[in-house]
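Input record, target 12 of the design panel.
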């Protein structure tokens, strides 16, 4: 959907639906669980903890086992709040016969990084052994990509393999405010600068090591033949914290892009798409000189893609619904048929400084065009139907059932992190 398609419509508050979900505790005692996944055809759950560990958990329950520990490679985290750390995990599509997997994490600045910059994000390949429980082989470590970052925030990091077998890597704009300042391209910002990787979704071929690279470039990437970095698949993003492919339907790629001070958004990412940052925030004009301005972006540059979901955040003068969007998944499981084909996502907290995460659901419009319809899902047995904890992330297992990852604290401090399976409310 292009930016001009919704020029007469502004974001609406969600309508709470009567449908409820239940939450079944799966794991606890984690620091900050930020991602959960399963290898193809394997029911084992793998939980990414921001501090630098990946745990495995048999689908039937039991003890968390350490699969990978790279705490000595991860940058020192601020216990109060931090957006860095171990953020992403993706298993190779042929993992059963080719047990490679990939992690994305924030390390201290490498020697080649500009002086004073904050961290260097790493994309690294490992192999797993066939032990029970499984373990990563530390000696198999292979660096694929390093990206230096000027500021702490906006790291993206929830990597995912697409149905085409390529690895997709979301990167934030480098951090700070307005995509301006140290380490940001003057005038246009990093997200609009196609000579930089920051503020983009990348697509690479991990099976192709020809041409002197640690990865290959798909021939149909938008800038494979020039005009920009060949790894870029889409651009104009602020902080695409969570990306996920629909496990059914047309296998579309969904991304939640964290807003600045007014609007949170969810996008469907398409090849070559420009999602507007820092020209617009959501479907609204953005003025980097005065980021309090908010009006529909109907008179700006053409060719910018609008979000399928937009809602006001807590900085919005019209009143906000949450602090920052947390991306999720299109539901394709069996436990809750009423959610089939709907996008489940949420917000970190509905009240600044308090653990008050919210869970939302978005449904395609009746005609299949334009903005999706957004509602709030009530959590059975929780006060006010809210999570009552900070919402950190969502996860999906090999059966396409969904999980909620949460904590009582805003940062990676203590052992207050939990993982819940989303279940019917009467379970």
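The sequence produced for target 12 reads:
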């Amino acid at each position: 959907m292009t930016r001009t398609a919704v020029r007469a419509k502004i974001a609406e508050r969600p309508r709470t639906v009567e449908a409820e979900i239940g939450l079944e505790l799966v794991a606890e005692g984690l620091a900050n669980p930020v991602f959960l996944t399963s290898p193809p055809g394997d029911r084992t759950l793998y939980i990414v903890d921001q501090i630098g560990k990946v745990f495995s958990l048999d689908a039937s329950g039991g003890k968390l086992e350490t699969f990978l520990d790279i705490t000595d490679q991860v940058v020192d985290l601020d216990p109060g709040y931090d957006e860095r750390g171990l953020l992403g995990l993706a298993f190779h599509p042929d993992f059963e016969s080719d047990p490679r997997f990939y992690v994305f994490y924030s390390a201290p600045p490498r020697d080649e990084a500009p002086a004073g910059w904050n961290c260097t994000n790493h994309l690294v390949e490992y192999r797993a052994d066939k032990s029970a429980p499984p373990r990563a082989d530390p000696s198999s470590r292979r660096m694929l990509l390093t990206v230096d970052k000027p500021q702490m925030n906006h790291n993206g990091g929830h990597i995912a393999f697409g149905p085409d077998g390529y690895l997709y890597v979301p990167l934030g704009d480098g951090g700070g405010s307005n995509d301006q300042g140290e380490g940001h391209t003057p005038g246009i910002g990093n997200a609009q600068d196609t000579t930089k990787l920051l503020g983009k979704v990348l697509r690479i071929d991990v099976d192709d090591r020809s041409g002197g690279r640690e990865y290959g470039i798909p021939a149909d990437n938008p800038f494979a033949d020039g005009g920009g970095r060949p790894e870029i698949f889409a651009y104009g993003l602020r902080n695409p914290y969570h990306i996920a492919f629909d496990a059914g339907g047309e296998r579309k790629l969904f991304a939640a892009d964290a807003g600045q001070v007014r609007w949170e958004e969810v996008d469907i990412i398409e090849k070559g798409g420009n999602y507007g940052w820092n020209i617009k925030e959501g479907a609204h004009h953005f003025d980097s000189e005065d980021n309090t301005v908010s009006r529909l972006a109907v008179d700006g540059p053409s060719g910018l893609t609008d979000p399928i979901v937009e809602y006001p955040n807590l900085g919005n003068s019209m009143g906000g619904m949450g602090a920052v969007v947390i991306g999720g998944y299109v539901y394709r499981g069996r436990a809750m048929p009423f959610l089939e084909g709907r996008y489940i996502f949420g917000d970190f907290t509905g009240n600044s400084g308090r653990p008050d995460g919210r869970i939302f659901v978005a449904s395609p419009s009746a005609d299949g065009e334009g903005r999706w319809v957004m509602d709030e899902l009530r959590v059975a047995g929780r006060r006010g139907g809210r999570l009552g904890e900070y919402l950190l992330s969502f996860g999906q297992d090999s059966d396409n059932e969904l999980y909620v990852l949460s904590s009582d604290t805003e940062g990676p401090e203590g052992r207050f992190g939990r993982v819940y399976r989303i279940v019917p409310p009467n379970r």
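The chain is about 0% helix and 40% strand.
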